[in-house]
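thread: overnight batch results

M.L. [08:02]
morning all. the overnight job finished for the chain we discussed friday. pasting input first so we're all looking at the same thing
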Amino acid sequence: MPTAVSRTLGGTQSPSPLADILSSTRGSEPTQLDELLLQSSGPVTDLSGFSMMPCLDSVRVLMFEPEGGLEGHALSAIGGEAALSTPPPLVVIIQESDGASWKTIGHRSARTLAEAMDIAASLEVTPENSSDFPICPGGFAGTLGYDLSRWSVPIAISNPPSPGTLLGVLWRTDAWMIHDRASDEISVIALEGHEWLDDPPRFTGPQTRTPVPRGVVPNSESDSDHASKVSRIQEGIESGNLYQVNYGRRWNGPMDSHPWEAFSRLSDTNPAPFSSWMMVSDHGWSVASSSPERLIRVYDGTVSTRPIKGTRKRGADDASDDELRHDLASSPKEIAEHLMLVDLERHDLSKICVNGSVHWSDWRIEALSNVQHLVSGIQGELSESFIAGRAVAEMFPGGSVTGCPKAVTLAAIDELEGSPRGAWTGSMGHVHSGAGIADWNILIRTLEAHSGPHSWHGTVQAGGGVVIGSSPAEEVEEARWKAAAVTESAWGFRTGFSDTDLPEREVSIAPFPEIKGPVSELSPGRRGPVGHVGLIHREVEDAPEGSVILVDNLDSFTENIAQSLAILGSDVLVMEGRPEVEGDPSETLNHWLDKIRPSRIVLGPGPARPEASAITMEIARRAVTGKLLVDSLAIPVLGLCLGHQALGLAAGWDLIKSPLGAVHGIPSMITNDGSGLYSGMGRELVMMRYNSLVLEESNDYLIPNSWDETGTLVMGLRHESLPIHGIQFHPESVGSPRGMEVLSAFLEAGPVEKRHGKELHSS
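M.L. [08:03]
and the structure it wrote out:
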């Protein structure tokens, strides 16, 4: 087995010595085939302890857009028409370096991004490694562009990249140079015998920064066009088709200088813990980022993410900074954006973690030079069935830069932006599956540049999560805040702001402010007791008899529901409610009942109306008419959000737009009459709502038993005699402090036996 060898080179007294080393060695032209730098800047925190630069002279894996990627017809996700669609396999090219150029040694294809990451993992070298560095030589590092999303979330789009477009690149990294920012020591860690151990790149001193270019104004859509797209998103939210969409506005134009110079300036003016630089020389592709956001970290068996959502400008001084932070924490719109994202990322992490291990660990405000953000920590224990590379693929792309539900918003983004995103909102980082290590950022605050015959052409995108409470004018302003530092570094253009509009402050971290109201009841870091945890299955053939069937309706919270049921001791079978290929819903349901004989069925939430899920409506119709049976026993059914609406529709109730407006991601007061699932819980409960539509009562055999805080909107119902319950809110959410009690009450409810037309509770 090979060995990883480390060597300490000493200190530099430079804030960014690896960037200085790369700058001094490259000169006017790169001295190595390609370039990659993962740089932390600003104060040393728990996020920014190390900067790292790999040697890229070994193996390279390129991922290209295949032929036939266009789906052939346009769907409107905003109009509720999103559909799953499997893209053709990625084209994967494997190359080796001969010291002067890259030579192709293999052609592969990958049906998913996970398979592409597996190809890289098969080329790793896993050495014995006794170092304490957060890196291991012999793995891979590189960039995954956003447009690889279709190979992790297969959704139909209309604007894929042109065939042959380079979507991602990974290099095998047999040696790393590491800057420990706390000690200011530079070290090399490499596979035994690597030339960097004896002759590493040398630090020759800080490099001179070139002046900011002036006079180039990049192209962009108008503020009014931007605002109109925000309004269009909100129309889709009001119709119940989605909850949140991250729209990105684009600035682009020719550059007067090399993008490396823009990166150097950006590192000085907008320091961030996950800054990064990449250049693929022979493809004329570079990426310069000062990202503050982590997509995923895998280390020592723990997998974590730190999503960002919720933004305010920096204040001119500490007092105004504090005032803006309190305003951020008190804003229902910002809290909705953030908690929705926390729920989404819990869902994503749950797919790759040990059942019951995923939890919301903390939230705080992280302030950069121009803006400050609300940031949460979410973590869990990586499942033995997932290697680090596959974990990266499953988390990609980050929910903070797509929206919710993730699959639907990928299609909505394509519809609104009308072109591929490229690198922006993709990810840059490193992975060593054999060593169980990975760390990837999200490419926001990012410049992407492509070389032309005479100059580079740059693109910057910025935006934010649009929710029902968003102000179109404020969304326009927020996008310009976020883009300002990057566009200034690239073109000397501050996205319409003067230098005094956005003060440049020191990077800092502050706790979440104390505020009043339902949000004060939320407790990140609090974990309930976990006893016997049930298993979660995805195939009918794998699930044991008596499992709880959970119908997944393309929601981004489904895994949270499955985890909650498993934590409460149930085996769960998750089945698609809106599959890519539709079958006869009656036959599908009969198959489930015959094979599983479920103890209970949960109709999950999702975008659009319940009629979009034929199987959900089939279950609801049988349930409310007493025809959902196993051995003459009526199967208990719980409808969550869309599932709750399906039960009402099946019983002849009307489903209408909420007369009080849509509510998404808001911890809300729910009143109840103490019956059904609410027995012994108290008459007022804080629960998380995600709904634009509400049921309107029209008969009496479904009985309303919970309402919104006004007492006018139905938030829950029960059948007069059958074990059927519906709740409009989301008990699995972090915004529902007592939601597990509601789910537990459902799991404890007994089935009902049908005899001579009467319903009797079975013993």
